[in-house]
Amino acid sequence: MSPECAWLMLVVFLLILAAGAHGNPVCTARSNIGKEVLVGSDLTVSCFFNKICPKIIFRDGEQIKHEQSPDLNVVSVNVKNLTKLSIFTCKCKKDPEPCGIDIAPGYPPDIPQNLTCIRKTESGNVTCTWKVGRDTKILTTCQLWVLGGPPHFYRSVMNSSRFCFATFPIIGSMSQLTLRLNISNGLGSNVSGPHNFILSNIVKPSRPNISHVECFSRRCHLRTDNHSMNLVEVKYRVKHQIWESLETYAGRSLNISSLRPYTTYEFQIRRKINHTVGLWSDWSRAKEAETKEEAPDKPLDVWYIQEPKSETCFRIFWKKLSKSEAKGKIQRYNISVQTQKKMNSTTVASNITSHIICCHPCSVSVSAINLKGQSPAKFIELRSPGLVLRIVSRILSNKSIALFWPMIAIAGNRTEYVVHWYPVGAKEKIQWIRVVDTTANITDLQPEKCYQGAVTALRSSGPVMASIEDISTWQSVPEQGPGLQPNLKESESLEVKWSKIPQSKIRGCLRKYSIYLEDDSKDIKHYNVENTKKQYTISGLSPGQCYKLWVTAWTDAGEGPRGICLPVCTPTDSEKLISLVILAGGAVLLICLMFLCICQFSSVQKRFLSCCQCLLPTVIPDPANSKCAKEYAIEQFHHHQCDSSMSEEPDIVEVEEVPYPSSFICTYKKSFSQESSTSDGTQITRSTDITEDYICTHGAISGGEEEEEDEEDRLLDEFGFLPCSSPFLEPLVLSGERLTLDVVKINCCEFLDGT
């Protein structure tokens, strides 16, 4: 061996020695009565140290005081009335390695009880279970001894449910079992037995299985796996409801009858050898199936209320059938209305439960329709009920109200009554019940909600109704106040309007409103208003005064918080006058603007001009009678007689204008046309056709050409003669050129006639 190996082995040996020396515990802890003690015991825990050092003791991690014995290496602590598991730890103050002991208080075991044994057919083994009395709180072991031959011992440990169990095979052709039980722990033990079992009586068949379920409208057929058991028990239920059971023999088909149509059922089965032998197997897993549909055979419950402000329109309501009553999925509803002359039918979707019908007199029925058919129809008469006395109510609880009404006030004999109710403002949530007594209990009412409705007596002579107004089970003050809309009508009066409080914020039945008006001197006036009104006029206010205004709402529980507080100031007399002047000026300005806009239309201009004719002179001077025209006519007449071959070149003549105001200057054009018939150079001067035209010219006359606007022509045609200058027409523009005879032609015959 080399020197290096020798040194290595020496080092390893020294390390082993050091580890062994350090591995010894620094101390040992013991109890004077052991680790398992009776609950409530007194004991002493001692720690024995292997060396001298400062010593400390802990209980459940907390340092405790200890006693020093004459032996310097031993310390101890006394424990009184120990009731729970405790951990004691001892150590040297500077040494990290501790020692300790766990002391568990408990109880000795009781006598074993409730022993049951089962032999499962699929394995052939026997499993026995038994219960161990009270909880021992400490480790407890159980032993089962199989007697009747060479004894066999099977051991188990009690579980948290205080049960012990053991499984063992059947050896040979045993027909009977003899068993003995033993239970023990650190505080004692107990024995029970012997217990005898006949093997055939403890045989438990394996759990069966439902392979298929076939259902019709009112029965179902179950198919199970193959088994040799004779007795089968079936249990079934509507899903999530109470189980019902039925026993049958396996030789017969597993049929379950008397079921409800269109309903989901759960099925389970278990089996047994027969009534007297063996045990029931475990229940099979649940199997679900739904029965088929059928046509509904129950009529709908239909009711109606009259539409407000109408004597012939009614809103009918109907209650949906339950799933078992509908016997299928409702596809739609058929509404039939029968009058004296004919019957009409209409259908609505399955999610609708109300419909408006306008007829009088008539009867109506509603039927539910599924895939298999229609429910029976039951007609009700739609009549406007007569009103009778109000109803007396009494609160029973926070969710129900009892109603009472006098029989004489509604019906003299035994009569069917319909009581309906709904939250205020939500008629679509109507509910109703039918009773034959003069009392009814309304249930499922929501606290802090207001309801209204009526009780209607159904009599052959016609229905009569007693109203149910503003009932509530429990109320509180409104949650908020109304919103304000003040409006000053005059300086001495104020019109107050407010918005409606949401029904969910009223928290009961609204009784009234209160209006508060506070002036600058903190003097507050209030006015009470009925709950049906949303406005109120306050009069007698002082001009030029400022106020604070707010409104509150009341229920039977009291007054709610005030709404928005708004400042309102009444105007002074001078402010009122200024306001009136401004208002009048604005009205005049608006009328002028409207007049100017209207005058832009040509049709309006025509009518206005026609109305203005009465303002013009009624005598119009005739230019043909002027001195200039007459002299020229005589001269022209002689000229035609003396020289028949005169030139066609027209001469220029000035026409004297009739003196008129400067704003009515007109030039007139008069044309004379002559047709002559000559024979042998002889001219006949008197045989002449004369045509006269008088034209009022507007604008320039140049070169013998006339350019007139279409609009002016229409005016001339309509009115004959109009002044050339008008506030609605273009200004008159006169040309400085002279009128020529080709433009103005004078008929000589007129002049001759005039002479």
What this model shows, in words?
This protein starts with a helix and ends with a helix. Strand 10 and strand 11 form a beta hairpin. The relative contact order is 0.04. The protein contains nine helices and 52 strands. 14% of the residues lie in helices and 39% in strands. With 755 residues, the chain is mainly beta. The longest helix is centred in the C-terminal third of the chain and has 26 residues, at 573-598. The chain folds into seven domains: 21-106, Sandwich (Immunoglobulin-like); 112-202, Immunoglobulins (Immunoglobulin-like, Sandwich), CATH 2.60.40; 206-290, Sandwich (Immunoglobulin-like), CATH 2.60.40.10; 302-372, Immunoglobulin-like (Sandwich); 386-471, Immunoglobulins (Immunoglobulin-like); 485-574, Immunoglobulins (Immunoglobulin-like), CATH 2.60.40.10; 624-754, no CATH class.
Structural class: mainly beta
Strand order of the largest sheet: 2-9-8-4-5
Count of β-strands: 52
**Proportion of beta-strand residues:** 35-45%
Compute the separation of the termini in Å: 186 Å
Helical residues, percent: 10-25%
Mean pLDDT figure: 77
Low-confidence stretches: 12-22, 637-739, 748-755
Give the CA-based shape. flat
Characterize the main sheet. Answer: 5 strands, mixed
Tell me the count of domains: 7
Q: Write down the Rg.
A: 61 Å
Number of helices: 9
